[in-house]
Amino acid sequence: MSGARRPRVAMVVQRAGREVNGGAEALCRDVALALRSVWDVTIVTTTAIDYGTWAPDYPAGPGDIEGLPVLRFDVDEPRSPRHFDTLSARLLAKIGTAPLAEQEAWMRAQGPYSTRLLRYLEDHGDSYDLVIFYTYLYATTYFGMPLVRDRAVLVPFAHDEWPIHLSMWNERFAAAREVVLSTSEERDFLEARFGRPFAGPVIGIGVDLPEDADGSRFRQRCGVANPFAIYVGRIEAAKGCEQLLQDFAQHKRRVADDLILVMLGRAQMALPTLPYLRPLGFVDEQTKFDGLAASEFLIMPSALESLSISLLEAWSVSRPVLVNAASDVLVGQSRRANAGLWYGDAAELSAGIDLLRGPAGRELGANGRRFVAERYAWPRIIEAYQHLYERFAVPVSSPA
Prior knowledge:
alpha/beta, Rossmann fold, glycosyltransferase, Alpha-D-kanosaminyltransferase, transferase, EC 2.4.1.301
């Protein structure tokens, strides 16, 4: 390959855009934006924002995210949550014995299934040196990888949820030119699940240390006067939010303090009206960092994570974290950073709140900022992806 030609790389993800609220989608977007300094990157995705229905929110065709090229394709049909839940329950009941055809029917229903996107990969995939698929769980990855088999790299965002135990994934994980990991805990899980080594690099994401995060601006803009814990992410039961509300309610019954819970993100579940709960919906990046800076600490109640970007963002503004002890990934991140505590029930959450509101919280937050500066600087992430390219890139055939 000519040293003068910039590498051409496609990144395939189920949704993409500043309005999209999701960890894997944010990682793909931010990595793509960072790598455009050294690669010609195109994001290949669907027109959807809502992962529950895959309804078309963006126009199909070429677009951009802050000048980064994006190709969006319509999904063949929206997802029916009721039909999908029925298929999921049926498949879960025979997870070790279901035939491949039934598993693939479930994957089509899971979506987003886009004939046009898949046809683009089939017709133009060989015009890219690498095609990187973000998150294993969706149809864009499962049906897209075989079309570019010789240049497919997988960033799975895997954790111990029931779909990863379907046998259909055995071939996909084996066929990837490389599997890029987000944490060492993800590597441990995949090696246990598939019974073989995963020697791919642990890369993760870069985090800029914000110098202009302003807690006072957040309080004024959002009308929040009380000290508060903050949650950032999709608000749904699968992320532990329902249990968090129960645990936080127990804390408030135990302690008559002035702490409230602020939640940033789109709500996929009904939220009660409570004097100590402030759901503010999806907010822009500046407001998110201002909110983190204004908070006492971040709470992350999910038991199923492969990398928590929210933890890194909280640490970037020197805020400690309180995480679900059931998540090996979250506990591992917090241990390595020495920047958080973990809880297993409501009593431990309450004790963690008490500790993080004191001097220990300030010390842990400072540790987190140092950790992010050392481990998650963008130059390090870019270098790791460049090494990946040097090892696995396949010469292109012709421009797309």
